[in-house]
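= Tokenised fold =
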Amino acid sequence: MRALTRGGRAFTAAALAAATAVLVGAAGLVAGGSGDARAAGGAVVLDEGELDFTPRLADGKLELQIDDRTGDTTVVREPSQVVLHAPASSLQYTPDPVATALGTTNMDSWQLNGWEAENIFAPEPGWNGSEAGGDIEVSLSGYDGPDIFGMAAYTRETDSVNGPATAYLGSAESVQRTFTLSGDEERLLPIWQFTAEGVYRLTFTVTSGGSSDTETLAVVVGDDVDPAGVLPGDGSTPTASPTDAPTGSATASPSPTVPAAHVIAEGHVDLAARPTDGDLEFQLKEGTELNHEWYEPGEIVMHVRPAAKRKIPEGYEFLGTPGDAVWWLPLQQNAGIVWPGWNTTEYAKADLDGRVSFRLDSVQGPGNFAMFYNDAMGVPVVSLNSGDGLPDTHTLGGGTHSHFDWVFSAEGVYRTTFTVSATLADGTKVSDTETIAWVVGDDTDPSTVTPGEGDEPTATPTATPSESASQTPTVTPSVSASGSASASAPATDPGTASSGSGGTSSTGGSGGSGTSTAGGLASTGAQVAVIAGVAVVALLVGGGAVFFVRSRRTAQ
């Protein structure tokens, strides 16, 4: 085991690009604290629910144990016999005060008990000091891992008054190694921060009343490493024999039976309307304004990685039951997952008589798809929703780039068919209908999925267009529908009920230049030279409740 104090602490930025990995479920394992999820050496994988690290007296001696409440009853476990898993979805915004307190950076990090804890499926580890008969000294007495680990207290209430974070312990040189756990504390919930993916081994020593105990906890961060293959404790536990290996283990993926599609699993991509020889083409633009490629929808497969998995918050019942799982692509860019937007920047406003219509004709797949944004009061405004019938339409003015929240309700293969149409300034009606294939989760290898319309026997329509729906609808002009967006919050389209203009957007005039009001990692405006900057959408309750966005501030 390496010494606790390490010479360097440079943040590995490449770790933010979460790699596509095989989930525990793909290996035939059952996740949770029921004891069914087994790692190497027979360890239990803990990847969801409430846990308490509890120093307690047993026969007059202090023992550090884990009270696992992830099942129907509390199960007491030894830290050296479990593997804690911080999944890819635990990658979160790092408040500046937490970074300062733990000697890290304000780049996104993997966090347990972070600000988004109530909306992600991840362990919630706490500390219980009430069973030791007095105060307890907790020390990080040993550490091994790919980068920095730390624990700190920082809440929204603290942030609202610009208060500092309180560091409990950490592996960075500047951070203390010991804190006192009060004997009256029944559940202390600090943020556990990890700044890189990989396997960590944290050795804790607890001392109270002259007695002490030392335990090593194995933690797998991200999905680059399968937690089922990690030895618990300090890694010295003998590996399970081949006969003990879980059945149904993942094998090599079958070769695609069709030419491999271009898989887009992370980064920026726009669904775009483009003028071509007097007609309109619906294409996908992957990348930034200065570095991008164009693709036909029938050439690509969009992959929504497991890191997008979230819980449905209250107020979003149109997505399902609050607390249930969905796969959520937010309107701001998150590292490691795809960031889809809409783009009409190749059409100047003067080129069009009205707006460009993006109509969702049908959705095939195991669940529903919805797209929406939040108004100035934080109320979701739904633009597209296959769960309540199709077709649904949203529109954009020329010279516009816009982002929304996209949500899928189940894992599997989806096919979304869109008709994109417009009326040109000379009265010509143009349109294009295309189907985009999506793979949600990791149950299906996206490289084996046929792009475009496909032919899966299990892909049953979840919604289809009505017989009266026109294949090439005429866009009704609206002098007020400029495609612009408020810098403080998206505004509801003043046009017809079928038009949506929310989300974050950049809009351009006749020259196609744009002003960006979308946050994120990539520059995607119509012309980067005239981008005015980044504005944060205010009061994002919902999309913002799941992906809370704040301006980063420097700790005082």
Observations:
- Residues 357 and 387 are 20 Å apart (CA to CA).
- The first strand starts at residue 44 and ends at 46.
- The chain has a mean pLDDT of 79.
